[in-house]
Amino acid sequence: MIHVFEGAEQPGCHPLFDAMYRDRKRIFVDLRRWDVPVIDGEFEVDQFDSPHSVYCIATDNDGRHRGSIRLLPSDRPHILGNLFPDLCDGPVPTGPNILELTRGCVSPSLPAAERRQVRNALTTAVVEYALQRGIDRYTCIADSGWLHEIR
């Protein structure tokens, strides 16, 4: 099941967000070695987890985190515009109908086949979200392997 939440929760306030932040820490800090903030040694939460963020979170039948993706408004601070604008050939795409996809995360505890299913369900969810909300475009910083899989 996919749940859409508008606005971040602080660690300790919502069990599903806690599980998401833990999985993000396992993937982005422990596995990929990103230098990003970690709270209390277990939660990957950054300055873009804010009241303006939108989260699509996949859960199992018991409500446990299976995967998630964060959407950031591009007309507010966001990763591409504020940290990596040099990745764009021209101006960073911004506007009320453009969101940035970030922190795509599938629980590392899932077997590979389930991870693909969750990734595909989240991809479908963000497309449906765009269609329902009048989002024209998404921006994203991604490695070419992930982009190839999504296409």
From TrEMBL:
Catalytic activities: a fatty acyl-[ACP] + S-adenosyl-L-methionine = an N-acyl-L-homoserine lactone + S-methyl-5'-thioadenosine + holo-[ACP] + H(+)
Listed EC numbers: 2.3.1.184
Q: Which domain of life is it from?
A: Bacteria
For this protein, the record's PROSITE patterns field holds: AUTOINDUCER_SYNTH_2
Q: Give the organism's phylogenetic lineage.
A: Bacteria, Pseudomonadati, Pseudomonadota, Alphaproteobacteria, Sphingomonadales
Q: Which family does it belong to?
A: Belongs to the autoinducer synthase family.
EC category: transferase
Q: Which Gene3D superfamilies match?
A: 3.40.630.30
Pfam assignment, any one: Autoind_synth
InterPro entries, sorted: Acyl_CoA_acyltransferase (IPR016181), Autoind_synthase (IPR001690)
- Give the protein's recorded name: Acyl-homoserine-lactone synthase
Source species of the chain: Novosphingobium album
Q: Does S-adenosyl-L-methionine appear among the keywords?
A: yes
| Keywords annotated in UniProt | Autoinducer synthesis, Quorum sensing, S-adenosyl-L-methionine, Transferase
